Amino acid sequence: MIIIRNDVEEIAGLKKNMFSKFEMKDLGNLNYRSKRGISICLKKYVLDLLVETGLIDCKPVDTPMVVNHNLHMELNGELADKERYQRLVGKLIYLSHTHPDIAYAVGVVSEFMHQPQVTHMEAAHRILRYLKGIASPGVLFKTNEHLNVELYTHAH
Fewest CB within a 10 Å sphere: which of 35, 55, 81, 140? Predict the structure, then answer.
């Protein structure tokens, strides 16, 4: 949800009310503003995530997960960095809300949040590699002077 209003107190009241009724997280101010308006471009979010994980130069893949992946907990499997894994999977969960094509793969990797292994991290990285290869132009909420209700959507 994006809240746009000049009245800071009004925004604070709305958020307090929403948080009391729904499980939500405040992601802070939008980072992608311009004179043309507010751009919600998940491609930028994905690119930032690729930089953060060191995968910016990776080769894209055609699918978010290997067919018949057989991802499971291996006995004595090498552990991945739990904090990094949880952070990455949390961001992938966020992306899955607007990219239903990754929902299954994200669901699979999220099963291993309690004790991620290297193979699980590799599967999460594959989802990122898939996202790098898909087109995602985003949505521009244009600056305007009217109070008309406008509808925006982001779909593939």
Answer: 35
